[in-house]
Amino acid sequence: MFHEGYGGELADKLKFGFYWGASCGGCEIAVLDTNEKILDIVAKADIVLWPVAMDAKYSDVCSMPDRFMDVCFFNGAVRNSEQAEMARLLRKKSKTLIAFGACAHLGGIPALANMHNRKEIYETLYLNEPSVENPQKTLPRTKSMVKEGELTLPRFFNHVYPLDQVVPVDYYIPGCPPPVPVILKAMDLIFEDQLPSKGTVLAPVKTLCDECPRNKNVAKKMTDIKRTWEIEADPEKCFLEQGIICMGPVTRAGCECRCINANQPCTGCMGPAPEVRDQGAKMISALASILKVDEEKDLSEEEIIALLKKVKDPVGSFYMFGLGSATINQRREK
């Protein structure tokens, strides 16, 4: 297969772009975590945009013909106007746009800020933070005049958005960061021209519990709720049975149980399992069904509420990565 090159010439390699919005940069490193496999990738694709690894200017992207890149991997959520503008521009310059990683997929950890609006965030960071001295109460502005002229900053949005709430997205590669096997499988689908229908999450169609070595297929019961530092977790036993919240039952598989193998519970970075609409709500429902004192007696509603109050950070526990796309977030905005 031949693809038209930048100057109109024919090229036998695909053209890839990588870009990041509101994110930590871990997704960029995940690409390099493919190790020697990166050589196989660049043998079949030219990377024409990758700001973290190569110099690129906004004007360079603007000068690209529309649909110039075969695939653009956009990681990070959309927090400000610059990121939204780049998302729209890269959508225009790409044949296929992939939300790469939890932040682009669901909003990720940056979207936890959706519990507060811009005014509250500014006041906390610039006025009320104990380590900040700001007697003039100066807050960020999109425009400021200095002797050299006018300076501009991107507009800080009131909310953090997943990529598909800003532009149409073709595919999703989940994870924080995306697991290397999932990345390599997606690359194979791209190079073999075998991508599924648009809108597909390019990860296994099963839950984390389905591949978890601790899942012994026994009826689970949870008699208490504990935080990870309150007990020494048994590395052979299901976290839920030990009273530790684990998002495995409602989270998509594909991460090779990275956290579980480190004796830490799943926090849900691979996003909702197939057929799950709201990851956090589904997990709360799952907890309610396994909270029991013993097999003979179900907890009363009051006892369940008392146990759930032991969850000190409900949003962080159930929506660590998915608040930006969660139903509860959409209702809060309304």
Automatic annotation (TrEMBL):
Q: Which top-level group of life is the source organism from?
A: Bacteria
Give me the segments passing through the membrane.
none
| Pfam families noted in UniProt | Oxidored_q6
Q: Does the keyword Oxidoreductase apply?
A: yes
What is this protein called in UniProt?
Oxidoreductase
Entry keyword set: Oxidoreductase
Query: What SUPFAM superfamilies has UniProt attached to this entry?
Result: HydA/Nqo6-like
Q: Which Gene3D superfamilies match?
A: Cytochrome-c3 hydrogenase, C-terminal domain, NADH:ubiquinone oxidoreductase-like, 20kDa subunit
GO-annotated molecular function = iron-sulfur cluster binding; oxidoreductase activity
- Tell me where in this chain the NADH:ubiquinone oxidoreductase-like 20kDa subunit domain is found: 24-186
Lineage, opening ranks: Bacteria, Bacteria division WOR-3
